[in-house]
Amino acid sequence: MTEKNGGTTGTSAQTAGGMRWVWEWTKSILVAFVLFLVVRAFVVEAFQIPTASMEGTLLVGDFLLVNKMVYGAEIPGTRARLPALDRPDRGDIVVFEPPPSAGQPERTNYVKRIVGAPGDTLYMREGILYRNGERADEPYAQHSRPFEDPYSPQFRWQRTYLVRDGKNRSEYRPTRDNWGPIAVPGDRYFVMGDNRDNSEDSRYWGFVPVDAIKGRPLIIYYSHDREPLVPFPWLTEIRWDRLLNLIR
């Protein structure tokens, strides 16, 4: 009887020890998962560049880590935000939800550069941006199709914000490279892609509200060339020279 009881006790202890081991691992996984959700919601989030609108600075196939804390991360399930560490400013590259006039599904994210802040007056002549009467210093701006200057009915929104300079608003006919001057209202930003001739941006669909801006890209953590028609380009076409590059 003693040997049997001892065997039963040993088996129970082993079972209890096994259950404790499983529970400890489960707790570790749950804690790690919760931390991941917290970090993703409030600190950093991954983002992929899907188009060539920022080409020259960011390429199709770049994967970014976005700082969500800097402008005040949005609390999931609400429109409330945490206190911001900084405000968006001219020259910042930002990730944001485009306005409804962009015609994108809800929660679609864009990445562009802020070129106009609240109170600025902007206009463009022959593809050159002017801000508050002076030519903007934009070493990052590129023109891939400089001999084109298309008109789009989407530009008509600009008439509401047109600065009076002797022009009749009804006669205002802006194009991609020649528009304005327009005034940026409070709590709104004017954004453009660095690849100016291949970017649908504020010229087309208007200003970005400050509360639509989600964060500022920090670093390219991975990049690959998506164009070659080869198997597994994410593995064979890695752009090693872009890995861990800071974004400016």
The ordered string of helix (H) and strand (E) elements is: HEEEEEEEEEHEEHE
Strand content: 15-25%
Mean pLDDT: 84
Number of domains: 2
Helical amount among residues, as a percent range? 10-25%
Distance between the termini: 77 Å
Overall morphology: elongated
Low-pLDDT sequence parts: 36-40
Total of helices: 3
Structural class: alpha+beta
Structural account:
The protein has 248 residues and is an alpha+beta fold. The chain has two domains: 42 residues; 204 residues, Umud Fragment, subunit A. Strands 1, 2, 3, 4, 9, 10, 11 and 12 form an eight-stranded antiparallel beta sheet that branches. It starts with a helix and ends with a strand. About 2% of the residues have low confidence.
List strands and helices in order, with pairings.
Layout: H1 2-42, E1 44-48, E2 62-67, E3 93-96, E4 110-116, E5 121-125, E6 128-131, E7 134-135, E8 179-183, E9 188-192, H2 202-205, E10 208-209, E11 213-223, H3 233-236, E12 245-246
Antiparallel strand pairs: 1-2, 2-11, 3-4, 3-11, 4-9, 5-6, 5-8, 6-7, 9-10, 11-12
